[in-house]
């Protein structure tokens, strides 16, 4: 089983790992795409980067970090990403088996494993680099990399990141309230809780997910699962 988590805009600064070694990252077929995107990001000066990334002066330090992608410190990807979903996941308390069953989508790296050592970066799935969308820059490489995994895939990425590399056979999850309205604000929190509940388990089908204690699922539409909260 492979659970693909969405990335987060918020990330932990710093780290105590050596600078990025692209060759050491999981899903090595994505190496060239990763290198090309890094090369482009490093071409922007900070002021240009802020415009491209559409961030305010308050986040200037995040744009500055993109100039250090190959020289800055790294940390495990699962600790690099922060925010609501990752708080609910509580990675430090997960088993080794749970870590082994996780992956994280990324505009910069495509998809990484939790133990991959990555630097701080700022790049969103909706960003355009020199007028080329991230979807066009990744092409079908993420899809191919994931389809090569011989696993039952549960894709918890948002629509923006699923679009960078869809896997037709993957189970996707949407979160609704009891009135059938899609949850937006706490969507990531509930997905983080679900990921925590199933990571480390041996699930092989959408029915196995629906049997997860403490969760309520009301319908299956092909490979899409609806979680009611």
Automatic annotation (TrEMBL):
<dbReference type="Pfam" id="PF03883">
    <property type="entry name" value="H2O2_YaaD"/>
</dbReference>
<protein>
    <submittedName>
        <fullName>Uncharacterized protein</fullName>
    </submittedName>
</protein>
<dbReference type="InterPro" id="IPR005583">
    <property type="entry name" value="YaaA"/>
</dbReference>
């Amino acid at each position: 089983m492979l659970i693909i988590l969405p990335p987060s805009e918020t990330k932990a600064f710093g780290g105590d790992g050596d600078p990025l070694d692209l060759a050491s990252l999981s899903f090595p077929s994505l190496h060239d795409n990763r290198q090309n995107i890094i090369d482009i990001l490093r071409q922007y000066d900070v002021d240009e980067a802020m415009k491209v990334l559409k961030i305010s002066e308050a986040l200037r330090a995040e744009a500055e970090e993109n100039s250090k992608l190959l020289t800055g410190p790294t940390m495990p990807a699962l600790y690099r990403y922060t925010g609501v979903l990752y708080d609910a996941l509580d990675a430090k308390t997960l088993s080794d088996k749970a870590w082994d069953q996780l992956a994280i989508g990324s505009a910069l790296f495509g998809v990484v494993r939790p133990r991959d050592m990555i630097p701080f970066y700022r790049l969103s799935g909706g960003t355009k680099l020199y007028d080329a969308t991230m979807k066009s820059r990744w092409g079908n490489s993420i899809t191919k990399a994931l389809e090569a995994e011989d696993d039952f895939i549960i894709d918890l990425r948002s629509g923006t990141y699923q679009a960078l590399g869809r896997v037709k056979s993957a189970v996707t999850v949407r979160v609704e309230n009891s009135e059938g309205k899609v949850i937006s604000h706490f969507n990531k929190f509930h997905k983080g809780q679900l990921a925590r509940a199933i990571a480390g388990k041996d699930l092989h089908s959408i029915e196995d997910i629906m049997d997860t204690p403490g969760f309520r699922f009301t319908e299956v539409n092909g490979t899409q699962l609806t979680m009611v909260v």
